[in-house]
Design brief:
Elements lengths: L1 E5 L6 H12 L3 E3 H11 L2 H11 L6 H12 L8 E4 L5 H13 L6 E6 L2 H9 L1 E4 L6 E3 L18 E2 L6 H15 L1 H7 L4 E5 L4 H11 L4
Parallel strand pairs: 1-3, 1-4, 2-3, 4-8
Antiparallel strand pairs: 5-6, 5-7
Helix pairs in contact: 1-9, 2-3, 2-4, 3-4, 4-5, 6-7
Length: 216
Amino acid sequence: MRIVLVGPPGAGKGTQAAYLAKNLSIPHISTGDLFRANISQGTELGLRAKSYMDAGQLVPDEVTIGMAQDRMEQPDATGGFLLDGFPRNVAQAEALDEMLKDAGMKIDAVLDLEVPEDEVVKRIAGRRICRNDSAHVFHVEYNAPKKAGVCDTCGGELYQRDDDSEDTVRKRLEVYHTQTEPIIEYYQSQGLVTTISALGTVTEVTQRAMAALPSE
């Protein structure tokens, strides 16, 4: 099964992608992982991406598409995959369709994780990270530390990343609405989209997502 996962920042795409991929026994392909892998391995596409990133510029669609195509052609993806963060815009979605068509394949389902904008802001702006270990993550409301500003695990200082400030989150949402949200309409025209509430526990959202998938 070939699935595209869509949703705004803070919708829990990464978490859901990992659970769904495991349940379906298909690889989880995320844009972030693609960039990190290509850059760390020094591939031609990775070097091109890094040159743009180092200059503070957006990586061109053709580079991202090339990375995604290389990954989807790996042996573990022949039986399907779950895409998270790709396609990011309609041009990438069209390129993906062409890619799959050439290989005699197609996207089977698009899962749109829906969450109110105020909830997105609350989820992200409330995050606090430990300065000693970024794996120690808390939330001022949903997972508050025993002592404000102090990591329960190691006693390190908790801080809010610049990317997690409310102003930054709202700007990220604007980018999502402008660039990525149009792919939902693109896939709706193909009858592929199911919108799922991303509110509730991780398990509840996963169950909704699994129930929305077409039976093979």
